[in-house]
C-alpha cells in the first residue's frame, strides 16, 4: 500500500504535465484575428488604416521577396505603428503567419 501512496503523485503529475500541447492555429486564422483589420483580409492594405498609414501590400513582389527571417523579425518586433507580436504570438504562431503571407503572393 505504501508503494501506491508514493507513485500516485508521480502518475498524477504525468497526467497533468504530460499532455500534448494544443496544435498551433493556422496562419490564416491568426492573420485574420491579428493582422486583417489593418492589412486587410486579402493583404493588400486597402483598409482605411492601411491607406492612412501607407502600409505595404503583403501580396506585392517587394514584400514577397523578403526572407522568412525578415518577415518574422518585422512581425516579432513591429514596424512603425504596428505592435510587436513576439510576446503575443510566440515563434510558432509567427511562423504560421509568415507561411500564410507566402500564400498571398500575386
Q: What do you see in this structure?
A:
It is a single chain. With 106 residues, the protein is mainly α. Helices cover 62% and strands 0% of the residues. Helix 2 (27-34) crosses helix 7 (86-103) and helix 6 (68-77) packs antiparallel against helix 7 (86-103). The model is unreliable at 3-8 (pLDDT under 50).
Ordered list of secondary-structure elements with their pairings:
Blueprint: H1 2-17, H2 27-34, H3 36-39, H4 48-53, H5 61-64, H6 68-77, H7 86-103
Write out key terms for the chains shown.
62% helix, disordered N terminus
In short:
By secondary structure, this protein is mainly α. 62% of the residues lie in helices and 0% in strands.
Number of strands: 0
Order of helices and strands: HHHHHHH
- Unreliable runs, pLDDT <50, ≥5 residues? 3-8
What's the overall average pLDDT, rounded? 85
Number of helices: 7
Biggest beta sheet attributes: none
Shape: globular
How would you name the oligomeric state of the polypeptide chains in this document? single chain
Going by helix content, strand content and strand pairing, the class is: mainly alpha
Estimate the strand proportion. under 5%
The percentage helix is 55-70%
Give Rg in angstroms: 20 Å
End-to-end CA span: 68 Å
Amino acid at each position: 500500500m505504501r508503494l501506491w501512496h508514493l507513485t500516485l503523485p508521480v502518475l498524477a503529475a504525468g497526467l497533468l504535465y504530460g499532455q500534448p500541447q494544443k496544435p498551433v492555429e493556422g496562419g490564416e486564422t491568426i492573420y485574420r484575428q491579428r493582422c486583417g483589420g489593418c492589412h486587410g483580409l486579402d493583404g493588400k492594405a486597402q483598409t482605411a488604416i492601411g491607406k492612412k498609414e501607407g502600409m505595404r501590400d503583403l501580396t506585392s513582389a517587394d514584400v514577397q521577396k523578403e526572407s522568412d527571417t525578415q518577415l518574422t523579425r518585422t512581425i516579432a518586433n513591429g514596424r512603425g505603428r504596428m505592435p510587436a507580436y513576439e510576446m503575443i504570438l510566440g515563434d510558432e504562431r509567427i511562423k504560421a503567419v509568415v507561411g500564410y503571407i507566402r500564400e498571398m503572393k500575386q
